[in-house]
Amino acid sequence: MPSHDDEDMAAERAQQNRELPEEFIASSDGGPRREAVGGAQAGPERRTLQAAINWYPGHMAQAMRKLGERLRIVDLLIEVVDARLPASSANPELDKLAARKPRIVVLGREDLADPHATREWMVWHAEHGRTAVAVNGKDQGSVKRIAGALDALTAERGTTRAMVVGIPNTGKSSIINGLLRRTAARTEDKAGVTRSLQWFRVRPKLEVMDTPGILVPKIATPQAQWQLALTGALPRERFDAEEVVAQFVAWAHANRPHLDVPDLETYARARGFARRGGEVDLHNAAGAFLKDFNDAKFGRITFERPEAA
């Protein structure tokens, strides 16, 4: 008999398939459709990213449903977003479910983002009545900024409970470990590691709950879909890395030509990715390309600016 999680997953996938944008659905003859990236032509026909946006496993569906009831037992929210995608990596449901809760927005992975864009987002959040801090969760010094923001919001309270929320792989657990100054929450550089609730006592009067990463069932745009895959919000086995790299290269050439980002074949040849007989190994090259992007080897890039939020 199927479990509740299996039923949740099947229902969410059915709903997603009804809501998929045309560009991400195979044509009636089974072939892919042509699509554009950020207004620029994406180039030759490629496989779709449908598998990527269908990744909404049962534990996420259950966590989304329970988010509202968990919010009742906490006093404030710490929402961790990816500083490279501050809008697309945010959870719009929080604006409905926690409109009256104090919120700290943490722009995580700020060391990979355009610092000018990050400052613009800090100002934007301040103008919208939210406390925002930019951090690199692996840097203890930057995590202290969150501690300072927490002190400001909890100074007049007694015992305070905070919930850390965010999409997968934004560095939530690293931030908790930074606040604790020890490794307690499990961390890995891939999506979907935290699967259950974990409470941590950060200070005598402050408890923090780490929650599973929740990806919204419907990602707003095709561009946000490949950007979330590129930045690590989706497990790599759930999307075609070559397709995501191609989308990014087309975007970079149209929007950041000064970065001189190489196409995948050029990248592969330059780094010696080859199969027997001299054929270029694009599959393994794409994995290395994704890693280099997430190590900022192509520069510090932010895909979204506040004026478009």
Note down, in words, how this protein is organized.
This protein is of the alpha/beta class. It has 2 domains: 4-55 and 217-308, Orthogonal Bundle (Conserved Hypothetical Protein Ylqf, Chain: A, domain 2), CATH 1.10.1580.10; 58-210, Rossmann fold (3-Layer(aba) Sandwich), CATH 3.40.50.300. Helix content is 39%, strand content 13%. The chain contains 11 helices and 8 strands. It has helices at residues 4-19, 50-53, 58-71, 93-97, 115-127, 140-154, 172-180, 222-230, 241-255, 264-270, 282-294; strands at 36-37, 40-41, 76-82, 103-108, 131-134, 160-166, 198-203, 206-210. It has a 6-stranded mixed sheet with strand order 5-4-3-6-8-7, with helices on both faces. A two-stranded antiparallel ribbon has the order 1-2. Mean pLDDT is 78; it is low at 1-47 and 186-195.
